[in-house]
Amino acid sequence: MSDNNNSTNNHDPNHSPIMTDEEIENLDPNDENIKKLMKQYEEETEKNAIWRESITEGFKRWLKGEKIYDRDKERISLYVSDDTKTEWQDFINMHKDEYTTISKLIRESVEYFISIQSKFSTESPLKLDNQAITNISHALKEPLTSIKGFSQLLLENYKNELDEQVLITIQNIFDQSLLLENKIINILDNIKTESSQYDILLIEDDLATIRLLTSYFESKGYSCQGVVSGKKGFEELNSNIPKVILLDIILPDYSGYDICKQIKMNKKFKEIPVFLLTAIPGSEVEKHMEDTHADGFILKPFDFSDFEVIFQYLK
Fold first, then answer.
1. What pLDDT does 195 receive?
2. Do residues 213 and 226 touch, judged by C-beta distance below 8 A?
3. CA–CA gap between residue 245 and residue 173 (Å, rounded)
4. Of 50, 123, 226, 270, which alpha carbon lies 20 to 30 A from 289's?
5. What confidence tens digit (pLDDT) does each residue in 148-169 have?
6. pTM of the model as a whole
7. Residue 258 exposure: Cα atoms within 13 Å on the Cβ side
8. Do 25 and 64 form a contact (C-beta atoms < 8 A)?
9. pLDDT for the residue numbered 261
10. What percent of the chain has pLDDT over 70?
11. Which architecture does CATH list for 200-313?
12. What confidence score (pLDDT) does residue 84 get?
């Protein structure tokens, strides 16, 4: 073992020691220097140098100076509930005839992904309605759920029973499914959905009021979109520019006064007429008209004739 001693004593502790094939074949696991190398290997890779009383192939490759795939360090963990795991397993059992192998699932997912991506590369952006995006997302993610779920079940439940190379292959499948899932999510998030243009944006947290006013304006031939918070209101403004905004003052997230100020300070939105809609006494609302730059206000309880003032902006 004199040659082995020279090899182990001279190696750089930051790199795998280099040994010849002959030296590796004649390794003595009871040799103190080899034990030190085994300990170093296990600390660096978190893998076993001895498995079932035999020196592992991974340790031998490490001694040759080869890069060792570190499954535990490179793995992206996915934490799911037992119910989710059960759902995945049930899906696999239900689709055995359609998806006989993981390879088939991967092929179909990738082919679908490529066909969809090719449509996005055209000069004019693809516009889809929300239902179409939902259908595409479901068609892509359903097989990916099986790939991720099945491979993770194997990694977690059979880690100590499968051959190391098989585990590496399964880990690669799991990692690639995560990459593909992220690409699908990024592409679907960038699809421009068809927006429905409307005349009136109603920001009001009372659903009964939204239903009432929506019905009223529709009876007059005008479309109305109701949202229940200031945040949702700004999301709508970033998608559509209405002709008029009806804005409740007391909302669950922001004050209607503050929302009105932000709208009027925004170059894109400042020309939109904003009418405050509130049960606050009119004398109190009038104090805020100048600093909010609101175009008017309508008090609750209202009469439908109170809204005639906004019809001039809807023509």
1. 52
2. yes
3. 51
4. 226
5. 778 888 888 888 888 888 888 8
6. 0.42
7. 10
8. no
9. 95
10. 69
11. 3-Layer(aba) Sandwich (3.40)
12. 61
Which of 151, 67, 48 shows the shortest CA–CA distance to 105?
151
Q: What phi and psi values does residue 216 have, to the nearest 5 degrees?
A: -65, -50
Residues whose CB is less than 8 angstroms from the CB of residue 223 and which lie 6 or more positions away in sequence, other chains included: 196, 197, 198, 199, 200, 217
Q: From residue 64, how far is each of 17, 57, 168 by CA, in Å?
A: 7, 11, 19
Question: Where are the chain's structural domains?
Answer: 2-68, 82-193, 200-313
- Short-list 210, 220, 152, CA closest to 181: 152
